Amino acid sequence: MEGLDEVRGRTVAVRRAFEELRDELGRVVVGHEALIEQVFVALVCGGHCLLEGVPGLGKTLLVRSLAEVLNLTFSRIQFTPDLMPADITGTIVLTDDAAGKKVFDFQRGPVFAHIVLADEINRATPKTQSALLEAMQEQSVTVGGRSHRLESPFIVLATQNPIEMEGTYPLPEAQIDRFFFKLLLQYPSREELGRIADLTTAPPPPPLRKVLDAEAVLEIRDWVREVPIAEPVKDYAVRLVMASHPRKDGRVSLADRYVLYGSSPRGLQSLILAAKARSLLTGRPNVSFQDIRSVMLPGLRHRIILNLEADAEGITAEKVLEAVAEGVAEIL
Amino acid sequence: MSEEERLLRERFSDLFTWQRVQRRERIFVQAFFFAVLGSLVFFPFRKTLPYAVSPLILPLLFCPVMAGALFLIRPWGTRESLRALFDLDQSLGLEERALTAWDILGRKEKRVPELVVLAEAAQRLQGVDFRLLFKRRLPWHALWLPPLLLLWLLFVWFDVGVDIQSASSQNPSATLAQQLKEFSQGLKRQARSQGLAESLKVAGVIEDLAEKRLRGQMSENKLREELSGLASRIDEMPSDLREPAFSFTSTTGEKLSDLKTELEALKQALFLPETGQGEKRTQGALRGRLESLPRLSEELSKRRLPPDQLSQEELDGILGELEKGVEAELDRRTLKEIGDFLRFLIRGDGEPGEEAGDRVAQGGADRATHGDRLEGPGLLPGDRPGKKEPAAQAPPPFEPGMVAHLKGILGEGRIESFPWRGKPRAGMSVVPVEDVIVSYRRQVEEELASEKIPEGLKETIKNYFLSLGMTGEKPE
After folding, report:
1. Residue A99 lies inside a defined structural domain of this protein
2. What are the residues whose beta carbons fall under 8 Å from the beta carbon of B349, sequence distance 6 or more?
3. Which of A65, A171, A60 is nearest to A122 (CA)?
């Protein structure tokens, strides 16, 4: 019974921690409540996020603040066409050691941080992009034949500007698939804009309180995987993924018409893991259908490749996924 | 098993039991709804029902079939259990705790986080009254059932009287069998009264076939096959019949009938009670009788057999042969008409018409009178029910001054009327008395053959009409 109480206790603790984190971030970040939750979910699931939004919506502020309240290290890389892989991963330099001898020393790049903001990732060359993506996947970098482990937790928040696509190198689908979530930053509402004005033109607020630390985040990451999920709920997630494919079982007419390729199995993993994390954040010991539905858009939207017809008719992945969600019943 | 597990198992069991009861009720309502609906749809085709089945019981027949089909199509399974749990979660806002707990209960090993789910689910489900939570909800079929049932009863109420009574005539299979039965009974009566041995046998065979079909021991197709075979056998029968000494192939049916009647009358007259049964007849009495029998006299003279030149034994023999010949000819003609009638029935391209059957079954006199006209399509005077003859659709134009002649038989077939333009011709309507007497006599013979007239009076009536027709004397 002690085990039960422990589990109950940690569930409650995670919920409270998240609420505190949200409140604390709310002091400096206006709006973006859903975004904060999704980024935290990705963090505790060990995933990376692709943020898409026009400049000036507070992406950097959000990520920096998150790192601050989580007591994690943070670095920001502005991707440009002339950015080299070594500028991210680090490089070997010739230095003097304590004895005055010349030695090769590995100078860590900005990727060596808990939270990395890869700003405008699509402006760098594919070679540089792949260096970061390799680091994301392996959670280590290899320079000069030596592998260097990145610190845990490690999360990359890469941003893309949906406009100004000239001179950019769009990420290949296979690379995009490696992101746990793709999050869209919405333009703030009128009230939110007013609050932003207040916050940014007034004296700076007191420093943010540290709610969690790296160790706590890793602990939560372990707990997430222990959250039980019922077979019918898991089956629902499977059917959603299947329905995102054209001409597959449980297809939805919109997907059938506009989707070229549906979600990969990584999409299903994202759905279930994120749903588990979300249930934990809400203090529930099990995954619900609503958990699956609420992580469906960020988890699958970048994994669906639409055809030209969809492009011509202005059909977005979100529309297709909404139709998929409507067309798939919870219980068969 | 922990306390939570035990409690959850009990609760889930209660839930499933209640949902199953409700589901069973819904299926029965749906089954009855579809049964009534099916009955309404089937109503126009009720004629295809077996003879003994009333349309009133159609819903009761359909309902078990529908219910069985619905239970077979949608048996209670895992999906139904999951649906019940999903509804429970939705109703109580359990966010799939019940569903997850049910899933965890089926696992062999349970981890601590799973036990937490069980504990929370047990806590929330304790004391929940599923009967209150899931109140009895009948499907939409239940709303439509009363009006549909009412509609069905109205259908039956306004139609059942006609339907049940006329079921035999409306149901094609029953119609055929029933008609055959009635036909065979009439034929039997006639064959017995006229001594038509072969026709009597055929009537018996037809009656047996009809009985078998009516009892459901024979299919419709089989019946038709049998009838076809019987008709073929009948066609072959006349050649098998014994060749009589006298042939009447060229004699009209009317004459044959009269001859038969006269022969019978003579035979009976010779054994009248006043002469003494079995008493030796005198030559004079016999010849006296023969004078009052014109057809017989005519037949004897045509065959150059003057009665006054024949001995008693010769006359007896000739009369016997004559009777056999007449019977054989009548039998042959009756068989031919039976064959025609059966073939008409087998064709199945319409109702054969009651008149046709009646006419054949009435047999002898009437049929034989118009024997020549009965061949081919002319077998069916008038019209078949429900069909129109071209003649009826387009009556011949009336031409004043010309003799208008309408073909047909009085009292048979459908009555058609159409207006005649033009002035009627002046003059009296005259019917020859011989025709009337012959017609009356035939009717009397039929009546005598039936059971309507008491046995004791039959002889008197017969003698009366014989004397009336032959001598022209007034009855006493």
Report:
1. no
2. none
3. A171
Region B77-95 average pLDDT: 92
Our CA-based measurement puts residue B119 at a distance from the nearest CA of chain A, in whole angstroms, of 9
Q: Do B95 and A290 touch (CB under 8 A)?
A: yes
ipTM of the complex: 0.88
Both A39 and A66 in one domain: the answer is: yes
Residues A199 and A241 in one domain: no
Contacts of A1 (CB under 8 A, 6+ apart): none
The DSSP call for residue A247 is T
B82, B83, B120 member nearest A285 (Cβ): B120
How confident is the model at residue A325, as a pLDDT? 93
Of A215, A247, A267, the domain-final residue: A215
Q: Is position A71 within any domain?
A: yes
What is the Cβ-side half-sphere exposure of residue A191, based on CA atoms within 13 angstroms? 2
Whether residue B55 is predicted with pLDDT greater than 90 in this model: the reply is no
Residue at which a domain ends, from A215, A248, A274? A215
Selection from A25, A34, A17 nearest residue A68 by Cα: A25
> CATH number of the domain that A35 lies in?
3.40.50.300
- Judge residue B73's burial from the number of C-beta atoms within 10 Å of its C-beta, 0-12 exposed, 13-18 middle, 19 or more buried: exposed
- Rounded to 5 degrees, what are φ and ψ at B98? -65, -45
Within its chain, how far is the Cα of B106 from the centroid?
A: 64
Answer yes or no: do A323 and A239 share one domain: yes
- Hey, what are B473's tokens? 């004397």
Residue of B nearest to A11 (CA): B113
* B119 neighbourhood in chain A, CB within 8 Å: 4
Q: What is the pLDDT of residue B285?
A: 64
| Chain B nearest-CA residue for A226 | B113
Into how many domains does chain A fold?
Answer: 2
- Inter-chain Cβ pairs, chain A and chain B, closer than 8 A: 61
- Residue A312 in domain: yes
Phi/psi of residue A96, each to 5°?
-95, 135
Query: Tokens at residue B210, please?
Result: 């009809």
Exposure pattern of A223-256 as b/e (b: 16+ CB <10 Å)? bbeebbbbbbbbebbbbbbbbbbbeeebbbebbe
Same domain, A194 and A237: no
Q: Which domain holds residue A284?
A: 227-327
- Contact A285/B117, CB-based, under 8 Å? yes
Least confident among A112-121, B311-320, B361-370: B361-370
> What are the chain A neighbours of B102 within 8 Å (beta carbons)?
230
Output the pLDDT for position B372. 39
CB contact under 8 A, A7 and B113: yes
**Residue indicated by tokens 């006419």:** B359
Q: Are B29 and B142 in contact (CB under 8 A)?
A: yes
B80 in contact with chain A, both atoms CB, cutoff 8 A = no
Nearest 5°: the CA angle B301, B304, B308 is: 70
Domain containing residue A249: CATH number: 1.10.8.80
Q: Does the pLDDT at position B28 exceed 60?
A: yes
A226 membership: H or E segment, kind and range: helix A214-226
Look up residue B413 and give its amino acid: G
Q: How far apart are the first and last CA of chain A?
A: 36
Q: Is residue A63 part of a domain?
A: yes
CA distance B378 to B385: 15
Sheet of A181-184: strand order equals A74-78, A115-119, A155-160, A49-52, A181-184
What is the model's pLDDT at position B361? 47
Chain B residues near residue A281 by CB distance under 8 angstroms? none
Spatial distance between the Cα atoms of B95 and B296, rounded to a whole number of angstroms: 108
* pLDDT score for B265: 74
Give the tens place of pLDDT for each residue, A168-197: 888 888 889 999 999 998 888 999 899 888
Same domain, A259 and A164: no
